[in-house]
Specification:
The protein is built from 3 helices and 6 strands; from the N terminus they run βααβαββββ. By secondary structure, it is α+β, with helices and mostly antiparallel strands. The protein has a 3-stranded antiparallel beta sheet with strand order 1-4-3, with no helix packed on it. Strands 2-5-6 form a 3-stranded antiparallel beta sheet, with no helix packed on it. The N and C termini lie far apart (44 Å).
């Protein structure tokens, strides 16, 4: 569902990372945790079917487009603010991913990120040749590993709020940016 699943026979080709066949792009191989760059169109996504293109290109109804609710690096005290993030996570080609956790906050919270990005690359000898004798490009996984530490005092503001700590994750590609947003919903105090 979320991968990766490297094949042992390809371990030496891509430093132990996964290589996906041309007919098995990440968009089709994995059903959870796949993100796309913001504003990507379906025809830019590999092997989009005609019915997928029609659904995705229709977009939201006029007036339903999400708006940017918080300036970068700020807090906002509204329970409706996460709707923008949720909308992006539920798009046909999602550019956001949400995880939920209930934790007792330490003074500092260390967040470790392990993911991957895929590059389409042709290498002779990988896969099969087509009828014309040409090698087909495959999807080569490139790991993304990073960790960030957050001062938890900023998460303990009164009431639910979004915290954008201006933390960009190292992706290995200058054109690919991943940013961490936190929606903090403190547990209400127990009634005595």
């Amino acid at each position: 569902m979320i991968g990766p699943d490297p094949r042992p026979d390809q371990a030496d080709l891509n430093e132990g990372q996964e290589i996906l066949r041309p007919q098995d792009p990440p968009r089709l191989r994995y059903s959870a945790g796949v993100l796309f760059p913001s504003q990507v169109t379906v025809d830019e996504a590999e092997t989009a079917a005609a019915d997928e293109t029609n659904v995705a290109d229709s977009g939201p109804a006029e007036g339903d487009e999400p708006e940017d609710l918080t300036p970068s690096g700020s807090l906002i005290d509204t329970d409706s603010a996460p709707e923008h993030e949720v909308n992006r996570a539920n798009e046909f080609l999602p550019s956001a991913l949400g995880l939920t956790a209930l934790i007792r906050l330490p003074r500092q919270l260390k967040i470790k990120i392990r993911a991957g990005r895929y590059e389409k690359k042709l290498q002779e000898g990988v896969g099969r040749q087509d009828k014309a004798g040409k090698w087909q490009p495959h999807w080569w996984r490139r790991p993304i590993e990073d960790s960030k530490t957050i001062d938890c005092e900023q998460l303990l503001a009164t009431g639910p709020h979004i915290f954008r700590p201006k933390l960009f994750l190292t992706t290995g590609d200058a054109n690919l940016k991943l940013e961490l947003h936190i929606f903090s919903r403190p547990l209400p105090p127990r009634a005595e």
